[in-house]
Specification:
With 494 residues, this protein is mainly alpha-helical. The chain contains 20 helices and 12 strands. It binds one RNA strand of 75 nucleotides through β6, β7, α7, β12 and α12.
Amino acid sequence: MFYAWLYYWQSKKKEIQMKTRTRFAPSPTGYMHIGNLRTALYEYLIAKSTGGDFILRIEDTDQKRYVEGATDIIFQTLKRVGMLWDEGPDIGGNFGPYVQSERKPIYAEYAHKLVELGGAHYCFCAHKDEEEDEENNNPAHAKLKDPCRLIPLEEAKKRIAAGESFVVRQNINKKGTSVFHDVVYGDIEIDYDELDEGVLLKSDGLPTYNFANVIDDHLMQITHVVRGNEYISSTPKYNLIYEAFGWEPPVYVHVPPVMKDAQHKLSKRNGDASFQDLVAKGYLPEAILNYIALLGWNPGDEREIFSLQELEECFSSERLNKSPAIFDIAKLTWMNGCYIRHLSADEFAKLAEPYYADITTPINHMALSAALQPRVETLGQIPEQIDFLQKVPEYDVALYENKKMKTTPEIAKKALELVLPVLEKVSDWNNENLFEVLKTTAVDHEMKNGQILYPVRIALSGKETTPGGATELAVILGKDESIKRIKSALQKLG
RNA sequence: GGUCCCAUCGUCUAAUGGUUAGGACAUCACCCUUUCACGGUGGCAAUAUGGGUUCGAAUCCCGUUGGGAUCACCA
């Protein structure tokens, strides 16, 4: 209890005294996972909400996992959402290098030092093969300490000098209970007996995450370590390393995972969307960022729409949640719709333009964008909404039958016959004029507005639902194409 | 299995001992309307469970159940 208090106090003190430094330390796996991006966001916000620094570090100590071009995706994603780093592989800084594979000599140096300090030992055991041993299921055996610990240090050094392959393995000497404070989870107690003597330096000379993160976080003067809660159970091991070196551990902020459903994490393996997948589907980066900020955090009031800047202003790590959050694409879609609607007409038009690529008919793009903007929640929904612009789809004349509009194919035929000559005379082809003349036509022939407008809309589109009404479609299609489509509809109606 | 962690509407969450348990998404209904949307109004919907502590428990404690994590020369 005393230690818990002490720990908490030290953490608190550190928060107050030092300039906050957080780091995002992804592995270059080739895509930006939503959960990772959220972690990066929280790291960024913890730093920036207190005027601190956000550092980017690449954790590529597992050569088997290396993917070409993966770091570029990391750079691009962070830039795209506006999370700019103060130090990193591309821009350098006072604590470089910022790529772990380039720090190899540093880890080796500290690993050997840790052995001297009694925090680790050399181990010459052969690689443990995968699921080979049933004995692994025997808890008593699993907890057995590494026999190589018994090798005298001098002898171990001789074997290494002789070229024997070795790893550096952590010593767990302590007994009793380890206590540490976490910003999200509070005080956590773990028995030292639960800790295994894991490999710190691999036989290829590169460190494991378990070692590299401690060395780098200390050397880079990271004050707040934010990471997934799967690291909670190994945190005492890291503290042991800090302790052996006489270093002070950082403030820990373990965050719960982002879930796909109640029992599965969001993961690329399950085919779940990554950041770039979502962008490709027409989600705006700003909306994605806003949405994931709220997966596990809330501002304490009822606001939901936040720019990165606004998040920086009101973020507090104390409002981070400890239970997992399910990623709800429906809510993201809604939020994306909000962002789309808040775009200026020009901004939306620019973003929508690429989605018009399949339409070769000469259409009014500006009018189309204006019609689409309030009607789509993702840019990806655009093509299905505008397919009729290229070509009127096959449709049944029964489509002209509409109870609410009080139309039938017969009425539609009459309406289109009345409308055709009127439209041909319209010179200023804009929405206001068109609506005016069509309304007048209805009044002149004692018909309801809908009895004129509905058939026109169907004639122009061949679809039951369209982005915009009759006159809006007419403007989008232009006079020539509109007239053409009405004539061909009349033919169809016999 | 050992250990650690988690548990409020279907989903994201608010309420840090006293609220008719609030908001948002989704859903449903209605209004608006030139189809569909947008927008507006309203409805449905939650404290996993059993014990305590307390005048009073979603909130504190214990058990149960359910879920997750971890026990790698992966991070």
